């Protein structure tokens, strides 16, 4: 009836679809163990679809208030009254059908609600059953977790104990290594000191034997040439000269002991390289003469930087040492050597710890001869102990019995300027490294300078350029 009056609604088809949905939503039996979460998910989905169909059926079961849109054309649009009459007549004819449809929709909705409650109950039972089945596994898991944690705790305790024992062994090994290193350092220091002493003693004995051999040969030769009385009368001066030569080996050993090692002095003298370079001494194309060259440390510095240098020393042993190292050195008195040189001949005259061995008149002669033999623009360098350091001026200076007297820095500067040197400057050198006084207080700074100040100084001057 509805289908013939309203072609949009197919009641039979709609009812058949409702029956299919209900059959598809029927729950499984309570004793059926095959239900699962997949069934619950599908049932929930089917109930939602059913609810959508019921809403559609409910909409179409209501009395129409206007013509369908597909009939909104001629001749149905000629009279509004006709449309109203027809709609009321339609509502009257299908009134009972609407009641049936409404009751059917209500029943189906109640049934759907019942099915939804059944699905919820099944879901709860499913969850409860799953929980019951999983409970033994939970207990087993807790037991395994507990045992695992205890095993980890025991292993952690064992590892901490082993780590503690290993740290103790490492600390013990470190202490042993430190003690061993200290022992090695002490042994090396003792060996180095012993080696230096042996080298010094060997050098002394070597040159002492050479001097004794020379003296013995000298006496034998003279003995073969005449009587003992003739030897004593004619060769007294020569014997005294030979005795003087014997002192050279003693002083060589003394300086090797108290001057400092060859390497230490070599490193100290490198301080003057920059001063020479700034003075452009190499541009004069002349030699550097080192007075009192000693063991040849300054000559080696000059050779390393490419300067031509010669040395002179009155000590025969020192001369032989320098010559054995390949240096151009002659045995002579420093002042005598300068007097033999022509004027304007040298690029630089140097003397490290030599002027404190000279008398005052000899020093004045040395300064005058130095400025004479220098080329214009040449320079002079004299290094000597610093008496401003009271420990040096009052004590250490007199360690060397050949020293004359300490030389005051400003006094030396004055006499160099008096001789004609220009730009005379004083360089204070070699301060004591460890100073016990605080340096930030002026009163302590004065004490520090007096007792721990520079141990040496250098006086440097330049000859006027043309």
From TrEMBL:
Native source species: Vasconcelosia minhoensis LEGE 07310
Keyword rRNA processing: no
Pfam families xrefs: Methyltransf_23
GO terms assigned for molecular function: methyltransferase activity
GO biological process, any: methylation
Protein's recorded name: Class I SAM-dependent methyltransferase
InterPro entries in UniProt: SAM-dependent_MTases_sf
Record key words, sorted: Coiled coil, Methyltransferase, Transferase
Coiled coil segments of this chain: 149-176
Domain of life the protein comes from: Bacteria
Lineage: Bacteria, Bacillati, Cyanobacteriota, Cyanophyceae, Nodosilineales
UniProt keyword Chaperone, yes or no: no
């Amino acid at each position: 009836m509805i289908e013939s009056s309203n072609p949009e609604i197919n009641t039979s088809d709609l009812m058949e679809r409702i029956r299919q949905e209900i059959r598809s939503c029927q729950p499984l039996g309570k004793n059926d163990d095959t239900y699962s979460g997949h069934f619950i998910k599908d049932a929930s989905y089917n109930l939602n679809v059913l609810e959508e169909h019921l809403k559609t059926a409910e909409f179409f079961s209501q009395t129409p208030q206007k013509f369908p849109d597909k009939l909104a054309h001629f001749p149905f649009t000629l009279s509004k009254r006709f449309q109203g009459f027809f709609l009321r007549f339609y509502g009257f004819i299908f009134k009972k059908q609407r009641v049936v449809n409404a009751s059917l929709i209500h029943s189906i909705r109640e049934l759907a609600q019942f099915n939804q409650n059944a699905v919820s109950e099944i879901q709860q039972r499913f969850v409860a059953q799953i929980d019951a089945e999983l409970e033994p596994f939970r207990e087993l898991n807790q037991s395994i977790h507990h045992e695992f944690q205890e095993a980890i705790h025991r292993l952690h305790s064992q590892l901490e104990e082993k780590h503690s024992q290993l740290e103790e062994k490492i600390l013990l090994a470190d202490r042993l290594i430190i003690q061993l290193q200290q022992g090695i350092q002490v042994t090396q220091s003792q060996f180095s000191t012993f080696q230096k002493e042996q080298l010094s003693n060997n050098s002394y004995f070597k040159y002492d034997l050479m001097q004794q051999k020379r003296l013995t040969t000298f006496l034998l030769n003279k003995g073969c040439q005449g009587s003992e009385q003739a030897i004593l009368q004619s060769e007294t001066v020569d014997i005294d000269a030979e005795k003087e030569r014997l002192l050279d080996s003693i002083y060589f050993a003394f300086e090797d002991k108290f001057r400092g090692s060859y390497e230490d002095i070599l490193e100290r003298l490198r301080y003057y390289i920059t001063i020479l370079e700034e003075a452009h001494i190499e541009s004069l194309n002349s030699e550097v003469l080192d007075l009192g060259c000693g063991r040849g440390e300054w000559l080696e510095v000059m050779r390393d930087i490419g300067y031509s240098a010669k040395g002179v020393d009155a000590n025969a042993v020192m001369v032989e040492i320098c010559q054995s190292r390949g240096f151009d050195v002659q045995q002579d008195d420093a002042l005598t050597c300068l007097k033999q040189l022509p004027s304007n001949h040298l690029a630089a005259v140097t003397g490290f710890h030599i002027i404190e061995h000279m008398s005052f008149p000899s020093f004045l002669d040395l300064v005058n001869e130095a400025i004479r033999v220098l080329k214009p623009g040449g320079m002079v360098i004299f290094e000597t102990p610093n008496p401003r350091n009271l420990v040096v001026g009052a004590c250490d200076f007199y360690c060397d019995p050949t020293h004359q007297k300490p030389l005051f820095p400003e006094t030396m500067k004055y006499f160099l300027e008096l001789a004609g040197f220009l730009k005379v400057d004083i360089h204070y050198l070699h301060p004591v490294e460890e100073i016990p006084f605080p340096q930030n207080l002026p009163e302590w700074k004065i004490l520090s300078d007096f007792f721990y100040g520079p141990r040496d100084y250098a006086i440097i001057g330049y000859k006027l350029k043309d």
